[in-house]
Amino acid sequence: MKAIITGGGTGGHIYPALSISKALLKQDWQVLYVGSIGGLEGKIIPPENIPYREVAGAYLPRKLTPRLLSALLKTARGLLQARQLIKQYQPDLVLGTGGFVAGPVVLAASLAGIKTVIHEQNIYPGFTNRLLASRVDRIALNFKGAAQYFPRKSQDKLVVTGNPIREVILTTERSQGIKELDLVEHKKTMLVFGGSQGAQSINDAMIPVYKKYSQANWLQIIHLTGLNNYEQVLKQLRTSGINLTEQDHYKILPYLDKMELAYAVADLIIYRAGATGLAEITAKGIPAILIPYPYSAENHQEYNARNLAEKGAAIVINQQDLTGDLLKAEIQGLFRDQARLTVMSSNSKKIGKPAAVADIIEMIKEIVDAK
């Protein structure tokens, strides 16, 4: 069997597509990944030894602007290029995970009579997936709540699968994380990160937290600042009188390649509200303080965060309300109330879909076999 997988622009679209691609390859499928010209996916996919091609595409402005015409022309060119690729490759199925590149590729497949699937990571669906909903054969959802935002005539296509995550995140044990990150077994561990690029607002709010817990013998913190913000955070800590050589319970890092180690040890997470991170957090059943990025496309991060909060798995702080004092108070309140943390962990675990990849692969097989 042969599949074309497409999705790009951000890691939230790319990594689920990569997980599905790898799972199909293990099932002896042939996979071609189609990305956008110059997109982030072009840096991530080829090193994975997955065949890769590119088509034209552009973000479509939501208002009538001069950029809209240019974007439409690029999208039309991408549609023609995608049609040619599909004609050459003859896939049994095309799956898109969002981003503007998925639009022309999935649409071209649908027009050619190829079986099509889209996967929506966020509780509020992206523009591309909302446009494609009427054309595709199946719509896989990360969150059940996303169903309300799709057209009524598409409801029978919806399947809640969860968001594909890497198997290593599920299998890495706490003991391994403690050892490799040089942590202390008996201490509570807090993980702080703002996504792949970091988040300056979270970094700033953490400085008073570090001052409060500088002498704590029960807490250790892993803080991933983002590569561009790392030196600034170190400078802020020095200015605040915090000497990291004397505070070995603070692990300040620009980034971490093996996120599975940090998830394995975390008792509490402070994070944005990207769909991929939330899928990983809930699969591990970790309580969270979420600070959604207010400028995400169609404000989808706040929708994601509120969904977890409504289910008792997280606390939400809007970025405009975020201060060091507020963050300190929320952290202190949670660590003082172990019963609440336990309930939040259980609620988080209930939301998680650790079998998402396997469920999506089974759905793909059913669709193709139903030809």
With helices defined by DSSP (H or I, 4 residues minimum), what is the helix count? 15
Low-confidence stretches: none
What is the CATH C level class of the largest domain, in words? Alpha Beta
State the strand order across the main sheet. 3-2-1-4-5-6-7
| Main sheet summary | 7 strands, parallel
What would the CATH topology of the largest domain be? Rossmann fold
Strand content: 15-25%
Descriptive account of the structure:
There is one protein chain. The chain is of the alpha/beta class and 371 residues long. It has a seven-stranded parallel sheet, with helices on both faces. Strands 10-9-8-11-12-13 form a six-stranded parallel sheet, sandwiched between helices. Strand 11, helix 11 (275-284) and strand 12 form a beta-alpha-beta unit. It contains 15 helices and 13 strands. Helices cover 44% and strands 16% of the residues. The chain has helices at 11-26, 41-44, 66-89, 102-111, 127-132, 167-171, 174-180, 200-212, 230-239, 259-265, 275-284, 300-310, 324-336, 338-351, 356-369, and strands spanning 2-6, 30-36, 52-55, 93-96, 115-120, 138-141, 158-160, 188-193, 219-224, 250-253, 268-271, 288-290, 314-316. It folds into two domains: 2-165 and 354-369, Glycogen Phosphorylase B (Rossmann fold, 3-Layer(aba) Sandwich); 168-351, 3-Layer(aba) Sandwich (Rossmann fold).
